[in-house]
From TrEMBL:
Keywords: Monooxygenase, Oxidoreductase. InterPro entries: FAD-bd (IPR002938), FAD-dep_Monooxygenase_BioMet (IPR050493), FAD/NAD-bd_sf (IPR036188). Gene3D superfamilies: FAD/NAD(P)-binding domain. This is 2-polyprenyl-6-methoxyphenol hydroxylase-like FAD-dependent oxidoreductase. One of its GO terms (molecular function) is monooxygenase activity.
Length: 381
């Protein structure tokens, strides 16, 4: 069997590596003309995602490029400590969730795939495909074609494959928030290394962690109407943070700030597969970054798909088995993440209620087992 994988983000290389482990050839086709080595800020790879990477023997390089971040402390904008929760649960060898620059994660998984002989072709934007009894042919915008036995779509939130598969597929759903972030050298911010401090401010949500190196990694979620983008994101964010602890606005002013990106997720997608074509990762079940699970879900998908293709007699049965094993879990993660995002975008009245109720919620959620369904999910090939 040969799989044509559409998309070379995180899920694409992970899927190719998982398929290779069960004896299936894979080739990756990326729409953009160049790699994503300098794209994006940073993200969380939760302990369940690292566990999945360990199954692919690709976890060590990811951990080496990131920083361990096992805990989160929640604060109100006025400086009141609201509570603490785990950022994932430690694996049996002590491995905890890590924060890593998105570009580093792209680079690591891509290089792992290349090192295992998996071909990656850039400048291949999918425009259509055609199935036959013997296989499927992908056609690209530049006129090139590729033929294989199946197409696995790992082309993200705005998946072209999802639309080709089902014209009625739901569109991405805006969360009400824009995301910004940065890394500041010698910021002078104190804090326990590896602990995320999450601040529910008056007009913005602000998170930061101090690395052992002294660098401060920060991000912010700014409630805003979709399309209402300021000329200067740094000034807009600093103004939104002005009513909270002065250190946060100062952090923003001291470093560069990329243009804010609107945060979307996907409502339940009815059709994950048809014929020889299957959706995975964000193409099937994009979640907001609030749960820190987007990359982890894509890596889990890769391993489950490989296991199903090896176990079942054909691609149809394998795709059906894959959906049975994944749908309930990923939709639960998407719903969980959306609830967290909604708390960040609270209005004046809802903000007061949130700050009153959040300590109770956090106490109930602080026990390890309350989040075990998410973080202790293990998949074995």
């Amino acid at each position: 069997m040969k799989a044509l994988i559409i998309g070379c983000g995180i899920g694409g290389p992970a899927t190719a590596m998982a398929l290779r482990q069960v004896g299936i050839d894979a080739e990756i086709f990326e729409a953009y003309d160049q790699t994503a080595d300098d794209v994006g800020s940073f993200l969380n790879v939760a302990s369940n995602g690292l566990d999945a990477l360990r199954t692919l023997d690709a976890h060590k390089a990811v951990m080496a490029a990131g920083i361990p971040t096992p805990r989160m402390v929640m604060w109100s904008g006025t400086g009141r400590r609201l509570g603490e929760v785990a950022n994932g649960l430690a694996l049996d060898d002590g491995t905890v969730s890590h924060t890593i620059q998105r570009s580093d994660l792209y680079r690591v998984v891509r290089d792992e795939a290349l090192g295992r002989g998996i071909p990656i072709t850039y400048g291949r934007r999918l425009v259509s495909y055609e199935e036959s009894e013997k296989g499927v042919t992908a056609r690209f915008e530049n006129g090139a074609e590729a033929t294989g036995d199946i197409i696995v779509a790992a082309d993200g939130l705005h998946s072209r494959t999802r639309t080709l598969l089902d014209q009625a597929a739901p569109a991405p759903r805006y969360s009400g928030l824009y995301n910004l972030g940065g890394i500041v050298e010698d910021a002078g911010v104190t804090g326990e290394p590896g602990v995320y401090n999450m601040v529910f401010g008056r007009k913005a949500f602000f998170g930061y962690t101090v690395a052992a190196s002294g660098k401060t990694w920060w991000f912010a979620n700014l409630p805003r109407r979709l399309g209402d983008e300021p000329a200067d994101w740094r000034a807009a964010l600093a103004e939104a943070l002005a009513g909270d602890d002065d250190r946060f606005a100062d952090l923003v002013r001291r470093g560069s700030v990329d243009p804010g990106l609107p945060i979307h997720d996907l409502p339940p997608v009815p059709t994950w597969h048809r014929g020889r074509v299957l959706l995975t990762g964000d193409a099937a079940h994009a979640t907001s970054p609030s749960s820190g699970q987007g990359a982890s879900m894509a890596i889990e998908d890769a391993i489950v798909l490989a296991a199903c293709l090896r176990a079942e007699p054909g691609h149809t049965a394998a795709f059906e088995s894959y959906e049975r094993r994944r749908r309930a879990r990923v939709e639960r993660v998407v719903a969980w993440s959306r609830k967290i995002s909604d708390r960040k975008a609270a209005g004046p009245v809802a903000r007061v209620l949130r700050d009153l109720m959040l300590p109770v919620f956090l106490r109930r959620s602080a026990g390890d087992e309350s989040l075990a369904w998410m973080y202790r999910h293990h998949i074995d090939l």
